[in-house]
Design a protein that fits this description.
Layout lengths: L1 H7 L3 H10 L2 E7 L5 E7 L1 E3 L2 E7 L3 H8 L2 E8 L7 E12 L2 H15 L5 H11 L3 E15 L8
Antiparallel strand pairs: 1-2, 1-5, 3-4, 4-7, 5-6, 6-7
Helix pairs in contact: 4-5
Length: 154
Amino acid sequence: MAKRRDAIRMTDKEMWTFVEGCKSLQVATLNKDGSPQLTTLWFAVVDGAFVFETYTKSQKVRNLKRDPRIAILLEDGTEYETLRGVSINGTAELFEDPTDVERYAFAVTKRNHPALSDDDARQAARALSKKRTAVVIRPAKIASWDHRKLAGAY
């Protein structure tokens, strides 16, 4: 089975190209009872790290304050032979200082609203930073797959 995994694993370049084309990030945190809490968010990559910002009072932030373990998933494909994805397990680092949050919120805003001017994106990020927490994911394990590499051979 290891050979098959090796055959579908993305190279670093393929992985980052795939990430650039993704709009949303699926995020899993752990509730107090240990069950997963799953949500989808917009994200950015800052200094090689996945980042997002969310309301400080959100369940995911409460979960991450209690237990910083996090899993994220980016995926694509509607048929088995076209499935692609990147899954990362790691630790979340939380930033609540508005200056830090603004920096990350700016990156997320610009990535998802590229037509906005830098000034408009900064203004939006500044407004977001007042009630939000920025989350930076520190990867521990990265897995990737691209079933298109199988060329129809299963």
